[in-house]
Amino acid sequence: MFNNYPKCPNCQYQRDESDKLMNAMMCPACGIIYDRWKAKRQTVKPDIDEVEVQLTMSLYESLKDCFLSVPHQVDGMVFKGRVFAYLVIIIWGCYFMFGGIDWQNIGSSFLHNVNLAFHEFGHVLFMPFGDFWMILGGSLFQVLLPLVVMLAFSIQQRDNFGAAIMLWWCGQSFIDVSPYIADAQSRSLPLISGLGKESHDWGNLLRMTNNLHNTDFIAQSSFTIGCCIMLLSFIWAGALLLKQKRVVR
């Protein structure tokens, strides 16, 4: 019966015969001007969408420029050296990944001694924050340091290939920690401090957080995270080498 009367697009009020004396262009219920309301909705929303798209594209381009940029020219010998380094981290990474959480396999690597030095420094660095953070600080600093160096390579030095190698090191550090976590219940691994089982970092951490029953899960999670980070470093470094190949002189 009232099909000839407009319905308010804002409040959905349906005009009827009783509203014929009211302004035909204004909603009697909420007071909007139909044409102005529609025009505003049509112009503002595309503007917001356009801004969101521009911000997304700008962020994408910034990240791409930061982490995928390569030099305009690359010396041939330098490129070959990077290809060699790439093969080394792939082979070495596979050695760790396929070896599983095995102390003999992981602890016998010279890289374990490198990680151990930073691990011990982490305890000292986090000591002012209390016992829990002092204990966790060893493993935490061990895995965070490569990420800090990675950002320095990428942002400050503009050396993304070096940054990818540092990301690989971060993954290896997670793998390096996993046997220590797995040993939390038995506490059978030899400790550098020589203080005995009571100074076992992860034995204490998991006891303090009532997570000793989750030892295997946490150790496996650390190992899996390390493997995933290593795989990401392979992809990143490989993509950079493909881009550098085009500018070798």
UniProtKB/TrEMBL annotation:
Keyword tags: Membrane, Transmembrane, Transmembrane helix
Residue ranges of the TM segments: 83-101, 132-154, 161-182, 217-242
Protein name: Zinc ribbon domain-containing protein
